[in-house]
Every structure is written in structure tokens, then in C-alpha cells.
Amino acid sequence: MGNPLDIEFEDMNGEQTTLRALGGSESEHWVVVNVASACGFTHQYAGLQELSTADGVTVVGFPCNQFGAQEPGTHQEICDFTSTQYNVTFPLMAKLEVKGEQQHPLFTELSQSTGSDDHTGDVRWNFEKFVISKDGAVSRFSSRDLPSDML
């Protein structure tokens, strides 16, 4: 498994970036989560926002519409919703696919990790979370795991 911090993906403005670039030298942990605005777990935005203010933590959201079509909006609609409803200030990237034939390479890499519930393989639902340390070690958490229980 390579270091997921160095895999490129598209931000909301169509620019290529990496988790390492988003976190900079001050980050010790990156929290990657596939998000959706119309999901039963959407309330986790509040906990993710709180976590994003901790020292050494960078939270990055990846909107995904693969689970129940629960993230149909445009990037602007997603940002407006998360900002208005949950005061989200952590970065949300371009919408992507976290499983299947068009799975983004970042999630191909992350899906190789084993979760707190012993699951390895495809992301199963919205708000599955991955905590990545500087050395690239990945801890995986299910949608039911709360952001406050991860670090």
C-alpha cells in the first residue's frame, strides 16, 4: 500500500491537490470522509467540523452520490448547505466515486484498510471515515462510528 497522502484528486475548483498539500506541515492526522447532504448520517458534519479545529488534524470531505443518490447537488449547493446547516469550514473536494469501476484511486487505496468492524473492501455507505497518519498508516471507521471516537 502506498502513502494515500500523496494521491492526487480534484478540489472544487478543478485543481489537482493531495491530502498532504491540504494539511501542510502542521498536520499529524488527516480524516477523509465520503459525505452526503441527504443521509441519515449527515448530522456527523457537526462532529467533523469540531474535529477539524483540533491541533494537527485536517478533515477533508469528498461528496459522493453513489449511495441512495443522497448527494445530488452541485458543488455550490453542497457548500451552501454544509456552511448554513453545520458551519462547515473544512475543505470539500470535487464529487467523486468511492467504489465501483470509476472508483477514485484515493479510495482504491483506502479501501484496502481494515475497519474497526473488521471490514476490508469497498466503502459501504456515506460517512465512512479514514484516519491517515503522516507515515500513511490508515485507520478505518464505519458510518456509525462518531467523529469524536476516532482520535
Tag the structure with descriptive keywords:
single chain, 151 residues, alpha+beta, Glutaredoxin, 4-stranded mixed beta sheet, two-stranded antiparallel ribbon, 4 helices, 6 strands
Topology, element by element:
Blueprint lengths: L8 E2 L5 E2 L1 H5 L5 E7 L8 H9 L4 E7 L11 H12 L18 H6 L18 E5 L4 E4 L10
Parallel strand pairs: 3-4
Antiparallel strand pairs: 1-2, 3-5, 5-6
Overall pLDDT score: 96
- Bin the helical content: 10-25%
List SSEs in N-to-C order.
EEHEHEHHEE
Count of alpha/pi helices: 4
Q: The CATH topology is what? A: Glutaredoxin
Distance between the termini: 22 Å
The name of the CATH superfamily reads Glutaredoxin
CATH architecture group name: 3-Layer(aba) Sandwich
Strand arrangement in the largest pleated sheet: 4-3-5-6
Beta-strand content bin: 15-25%
Poorly predicted regions? none
Describe the protein's architecture and organization.
With 151 residues, this protein is α+β, with helices and mostly antiparallel strands. It has one domain (4-146): Glutaredoxin (3-Layer(aba) Sandwich), CATH 3.40.30.10. Helices cover 21% and strands 18% of the residues. The strands form two sheets. A four-stranded mixed β-sheet has the order 4-3-5-6. A two-stranded antiparallel sheet has the order 1-2. A hairpin with a 5-residue loop joins β1 and β2. The chain is globular and about 35 Å long.
